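User: Please fill in residues for this 224-position structure.
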């Protein structure tokens, strides 16, 4: 399904898009977002967290329907409340905390929204690494600010994975969907990427990172 994930960027600049995971997706026997995810329960939680991080980094405005942010396991119904009791479990509380963190970073990183509907606000880094199930892209703000999103959509951690960057310097891991506080396994980069001034992916610098299983990592440069 790698091409399904990249296809939307072919026509993303022709209209102004809202990205909805709407009411219609979680009713009438379609099941909850969580239950649409493949794998065992750990993988389902990891996949849902990755979906949200992919969505928040993707150009376009975001819309999710109530219950998704709790990783609700049952289908939504107008006859009862949300399954708030699920927040007693760390993995469900972790998904809620992730959505909160996504919103916080989104607000603080103009690269994620300033040029949503302009092709100058997005660049693929590598859309063709099918063998590793990895996709990476760059979001660009209007004033030279950047954010790199790297999605490892396989259940296998990728160590020493190299991603081209628009410039060197210090790059911080501002998001890791596999962080323990989100219910993940804690595979990652301890908050920082190892960056070298070496050409990679046709760019002047390269980050060597650990990609968590079924996880999304965001990198942002530290302001000078």
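Assistant: Residues filled in for all 224 positions:
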């Amino acid at each position: 399904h790698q091409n399904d994930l990249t296809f939307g960027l072919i026509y993303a600049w022709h209209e102004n898009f809202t990205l909805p995971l709407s009411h219609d997706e979680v009713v009438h026997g379609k099941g909850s977002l969580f239950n649409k995810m493949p794998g065992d329960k750990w993988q389902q939680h990891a996949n849902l967290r990755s979906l949200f991080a992919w969505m928040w980094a993707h150009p376009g405005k975001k819309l999710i329907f109530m219950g998704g942010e709790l990783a609700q396991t049952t289908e939504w119904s107008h006859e009862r409340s949300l399954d708030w009791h699920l927040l007693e479990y760390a993995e469900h509380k972790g998904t809620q905390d992730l959505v909160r963190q996504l919103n916080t970073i989104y607000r603080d990183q103009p690269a994620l929204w300033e040029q949503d509907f302009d092709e100058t606000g997005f660049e693929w880094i590598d859309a063709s690494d099918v063998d590793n199930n990895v996709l990476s892209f760059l979001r660009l703000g209007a004033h030279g600010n950047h954010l790199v999103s790297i999605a490892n959509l396989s259940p296998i951690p990728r160590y020493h994975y190299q991603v081209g960057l628009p410039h060197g310097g210090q790059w911080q891991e501002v998001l890791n969907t596999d962080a323990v506080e989100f219910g993940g396994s804690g595979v990652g980069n301890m908050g920082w990427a190892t960056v070298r001034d070496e050409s990679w992916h046709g760019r002047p610098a390269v980050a060597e990172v650990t990609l968590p299983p079924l996880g999304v990592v965001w990198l942002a440069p530290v302001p000078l």
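For context: The chain has four helices and ten strands.
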